[in-house]
Amino acid sequence: MVNGADTAWILTSTALVLFMTLPGLALFYAGLVRARNILSVLMQCVSIASLMSLLWLIAGYSLAFAEGSAWVGGLGKMMLAEVTRGQVFDGTGIPESLFFMFQMTFAIITPALIVGAFVERIKFSAVLLFCTLWLLLVYAPVTHWVWGGGWLGAMGVKDFAGGIVVHVTAGVAAIVLAVMLGARTGFPSHVQPPHAPWMVMVGASMLWVGWFGFNAGSALSAGTDAGMAMLVTHVSAATATLVWIGIEWARFGKPSLVGAVTGTIAGLATITPASGFVGPIGGLTCGLAGGFICYLAVDVIRNRMSIDDSLDVMAVHGVGGATGTLLTAVLMGASLGGVGFDEGVGAGGQFVVQLTGVAEAAIYCAVVSIVIVMVVKATTGLRVSTDEEREGLDLASHGETGYNN
Amino acid sequence: MKFIIAIIQPHRLDAVREALSGVGVSGMTASEVKGFGRQGGHSEIYRGAEYTVHYLPKVKLEIAVNADVADKVVETIAQAGHTGKIGDGKIFVLDLENALRIRTSETGPDAL
How many Å apart are CA A173 and CA A109, to the nearest integer? Predict the structure, then answer.
C-alpha cells in the first residue's frame, strides 16, 4: 500500500537529486573550465539529462530493475510496460512510477559526472553517443547487480546510495575517456586556471543540499534510516571540507575556495555507500578518510601520472566512492554506531565482499567503456580539431558565447 | 601637447584619478587591460596544481595635456600609483600632433 509520508519524501528527494545535476553539477563543472567553454559544459549536462531520461524510460529502467538474470534485468519493463498507475514498488510504500523517477535522477547524474573527464576538447556528438551506450551497457547492468536483484546484491554488497553504482563507475569511465581522448592541448604546463571559482562554489553548494535527497532518499522511506543518512552525509561533507582547507593551508599557506568545495564533494562521494549503514562516527571517519585520500588521488592522477581527467572525476568520485564502500565494512558495525552486520558476517568477511563489489564493477566498467569509446571513435569521432579547441567549444560546437558585453 | 599613457595597478586607479584632478587634468580615458612586464605574471594553485597566469589585470590611462603640465602630470601619476612593489606599472609620454573636439570642431590645445 502506498505510504503518504514515504511518498512525499521521495517526491522531494527526486527533485533534489535532479537539482544536483541541473544546475548544481553543471555550474560546479562550468566554473572550473575556461570562459570559452562554459556553455559547452552546461549544454552537455542539459543534453545528458534529457537523453538519459528517455533512455531510462525506453530500456534503462527495465535493464536495471525488471526481473531478469543475475547479470542484467529483463525487458519486461521497457516503456514501463507491466507497470500500472496504481502499482506500489515491491518492498516499499512508494508508487513504482516514483521509484522509476527517483532512480532516473541517478541515471542522469552518473553519466553527467563523467563530463568532468572530457571537457574542453570532446565532440558534442561523441558525448551523446558515449553516454547513450554507457547508460545501457554499463550503468543499467551494474545497477542491476547491486540494487536490482543481481549477483552483487545477492552476495551481500552494501552500497546504500551508489558508491559503486554511481561513483566508482563514473570515476572509472572518466579515466578511460581521459586516457583514450588524450589531454587538452597544453596540458599540464599551459592549462588555464578555472574561470569562475565562485560558480564552482555555487554548484558545489547545490550538490551538497541535493545530496540529502540522494542519500536520505535512498532509504526509500521517511523514517529513522533517512534521518541518520542525512546526518552522516552532512557530517562527512563538513569534515572533508575542513580537511581540504587544512591541507592547503599547511601546504601552500593559503586555503582556497576551489579546494574547500572540492573537499565537500569528496566527503559527499565517500559517505554515499555508507550513508544508510553508519552512525555519526562513521560520518566523521568517511569525511576524514575521503578528504585525505581524495586529495592524494588528485595529486597522483593529475600531477604524477599526468592524466588529464580534467575536473578530477576519478580522484574525487571514483576514489571517494570506493573508499566509502570499503570503509562501510568496518563502520557499519554496531559498536561504532552502525546498523550491525548481517547474520554470520563480520567486518573481515564484509570487507572482502565490498572489495569484490568495487573491483568487479570497476573491471567491468573499464572493459566495456573502452569498447564503447572505440565504437564512438569509429563512428562520430572523439575530438574536435585543434583549431576548434583553441577557439573554444562554445563557439565551435554551439555557435554562442558565454559572456557578451 | 603631450599624450601620456600610464599602465597602473587597478587598485591605485581611484587615488591616481583624485590626484590628477588636483593638478587640473580635466579628462582621461581608463581601460581595463592585461599584460606583463618584469613581474612576468603570477601563479595560482587549484587542487594542488600550480597554474601560471601570464597576463595580469592592469588599468591603462590615456591623457592628453598641454606640454607645460606634462611633467607635473607624470610626477603625480607616479606618486599616486606608487606602492613600491613589483607590478606598479609604467608611464609613457608621446608627442601629440593634434586634437579635435568633435562637438565644436575646435582643434589643438583648445580641444583639450
Answer: 13
C-alpha cell at A285: 571517519
Question: Per-residue pLDDT for B40 more than 80?
Answer: no
Q: What is the pLDDT of residue B24?
A: 83
Q: Are A240 and A53 in contact (CB under 8 A)?
A: no
pTM of the model: 0.92
Residues A14 and A102 sit within 8 Å (Cβ to Cβ): yes
Q: List the grid coordinates of A31.
A: 566554473
Residues of B in contact with A191 (CB under 8 A): 51
Q: How far apart are CA B92 and CA B89, in angstroms?
A: 10
Instruction: Determine contact: A306 vs chain B, CB below 8 A.
Output: no
Give the distance from CA A46 to its chain's centroid: 16
In percent, the amount of chain B with pLDDT more than 90 equals 75
Cα A208 to Cα A223, A231, A261, A313, distances in angstroms: 21, 12, 9, 16
Q: Are A265 and A204 in contact (CB under 8 A)?
A: yes
Asked if residue A265 has pLDDT above 90, the reply is: yes
- Looking at residue A27, its pLDDT comes to 98
pLDDT at A36: 97
Pairing mode of beta strands B56-65, B2-8: antiparallel
Q: Quick check: B53 contacting A, CB < 8 Å?
A: yes
pLDDT value of residue A132: 98
Compute, in degrees rounded to 10, the torsion defined by CA atoms A83, A87, A90, A93: 150
CA distance A167 to chain B (A): 19
Complex ipTM value: 0.76
Give CA separation, A354 vs A70, A164, A269, A336, in Å: 17, 9, 16, 18
A308 lies within 8 A of chain B by CB: no
| Nine-digit cell string for A202 | 555555487
Residue with C-alpha cell 569511465? A173
Determine what percent of chain A is predicted with pLDDT higher than 70.
Answer: 100
